[in-house]
Input
Amino acid sequence: MQKGFTLIELMIVVAIIGILAAIAIPAYQDYTKRAHVSEGLNLAAGAKSAVTEYYASNGTWPTSNSLAGISTAASIKGNAVNSVTVGTSGKITVAMNSTKVASGNIVLTPRDVNGGINWACTGTIPAKLLPANCR
Output
């Protein structure tokens, strides 16, 4: 008497593994892209502090990286981030690497609300890739 699996049983197991892989791979790709977008927001944290300090000291928003006292836009980069730029009215633009995430950017806009700074998060990155505080 032989023991083991039949060909049909093995084919069923392979089919189940294939179905699970078909579901898991796209979910994992979205997960890695969300992680890369989070990297961009972490790199922007230093610029947010600099813009807030500049506004607290001068009463106006900085319009460039040098006014905010941070490195040039091209030197603030990461694995999935091409640059972090401070622009008009203190807006911080995080340009994402299109090969890692999606072509687009995240724009953080500061607002003075009763002496506190609130940051609005907009941009061209798909909403499903943004962290919960940016949706």
Remarks:
- Strands lie at 81-86, 92-96, 105-113, 116-123.
- The CA atoms of residues 2 and 125 lie 58 Å apart.
- The chain has two helices and four strands.
- The chain has a mean pLDDT of 90.
